Amino acid sequence: MNTLGQRLKYAREYRGYSQKDLEIISGVKQGTISKIERGKQESSAHDVVLCRALEINPFWLVFREGDMEMPKGFFPQAKAAKLDTHAPSIDNLVHRAEILAATELKKLANVNERLERIEKTTKEFIENSNARYTELERAVAELSVNKPPKSAPKQNRKH
Predict the structure, then answer these.
(1) d(CA 25, CA 79)
(2) Residue 69, SS3 per DSSP
(3) In what helix (H) or strand (E) does residue 73 lie, and over which residues does it extend?
(4) Cα 78 to chain center, whole Å?
(5) In the predicted structure, residue 80 carries a pLDDT above the cut 50
(6) Could you give the count of Cα atoms lying within 13 Å of 83 in the half-sphere of its Cβ?
(7) Angle at 110 between CA 106 and CA 116, to 5 degrees
(8) Where are the domains of the chain?
(9) What gap in Å lies between CA 96 and CA 24, rounded to an integer?
(10) Check whether domain 1-87 has CATH 1.10.260.40, yes or no
C-alpha cells in the first residue's frame, strides 16, 4: 500500500464500507472518494474528514506513519458511525424531494392547462347552444305569426 488512495481503499474495505457508505458517513462525495482511491486526486482537505469517518490515523493515511487504527483521544469527540446502509443521505433525500416536487408541479401545470381548455370548450359549447336555442325560439315564433289560421274541420253537408 504505497499510495494514499490504496491506503484509503484498504481502510474503507477493512471497515466494511462501500464508497457510497463512506460518502454518507463522511459527507465527502463518492466521486471524490473514487478519485482519491484511484490516485487521480492526492492529499486534500478531505483526508481528515475521511480519517475521522473511518476512525483511522491521519498520519498513517497521509504519510504512512504509525498504525492504521486511530490513536485514543486523537479525535476526542469522534464516535463510531452507526450506518444503516439502506438509509439514503439527507442530501439524497432532499434531491429526490426536489425532483419529485418539480415533476408534480409539471403534472399540475398540465392538469391546469387541460382544465382551462375544458373550461374554454365548455363556455363555447354553452354560448353556441344558447345561440342555437335563441334561433330556434325565433323560428318557432315566426312560424306562429306567419301560420295560417286553423280552418274549421270540413263537415259533410248534404243539400
Answers:
(1) 11
(2) strand
(3) none
(4) 34
(5) no
(6) 20
(7) 140
(8) 1-87, 88-146
(9) 15
(10) yes
Q: Residue 52, Cβ neighbours under 10 Å: how many?
A: 19
Per-residue pLDDT at 63: 87
Query: What are 60's three cell numbers?
Result: 498513517
Q: Give the global pTM.
A: 0.48
Quick: pLDDT tens for 108-124: 888 888 999 999 999 99
Sign of the Cα torsion 14, 16, 22, 25 reads negative
Q: Rounded to an integer, what distance in angstroms lies between the CA atom of residue 26 and that of residue 65?
A: 23
Q: Is 56 helix (H, G, I), strand (E, B) or coil?
A: strand
Give the Cα separation of 3 and 34 in Å (integer).
Answer: 14
The values of phi and psi at residue 111, to 5°, are -65, -40
Phi, psi (5° rounding) for residue 144? -65, -40
| Contact by Cβ (8 Å): 65, 59 | yes
Neighbours of 48 (CB within 10 A): 13
Confidence of residue 95 (pLDDT cuts 50, 70, 90): low
Q: Is the pLDDT of residue 150 over 70?
A: no
Question: Above 60 in pLDDT, residue 76?
Answer: no
Distance of CA 116 to the CA centre of its chain: 26
